[in-house]
Amino acid sequence: MKKRRKAASRDAATPARARLRVGVIYGGRSVEHECRLVSARAIMQALDPRRYEVVPIGIHATGTLVLGGSHYALPPNPRCGGSCA
After folding, report:
1. CB atoms within 10 A of CB 42
2. What are the beta bridge partners of residue 58?
3. Which of 13, 44, 58, 67 is exposed most, by the fewest CB atoms within 10 A?
């Protein structure tokens, strides 16, 4: 009887702790612009930083794209008076 070899894991080539990169697109040219910023903050805070690398992609009210490394401040977090991230 032949012994079966264990199949190699699909993740054998990647580190066990590799994080998934997630782009969060927020803002835009809409009357709901501010609401979208607050929603984006909630989503980014809810993602586990050990599992996900968040790349914020903002769209200014004028329509200009602002990528993660650039300064495009989200409004203060109302739950902590703006003093928490």
Report:
1. 11
2. 26, 66
3. 13
**69 C-beta neighbours (distance < 10 Å), count:** 8
Q: Which of 85, 79, 77 shows the shortest CA–CA distance to 37?
A: 77
Distances (CA, A) of 79 to 22, 32, 83: 24, 20, 9
| Burial class (CB within 10 angstroms; exposed 0-12, middle 13-18, buried 19+) of 21 | exposed
- Express each pLDDT in 9-26 by its tens digit: 554 555 667 899 999 999
CA distance 24 to 13: 27
pLDDT digits 0-9 by tens, 36-72: 888 998 999 999 999 999 999 999 888 888 887 555 5
25 touches 59 (CB < 8 A): yes
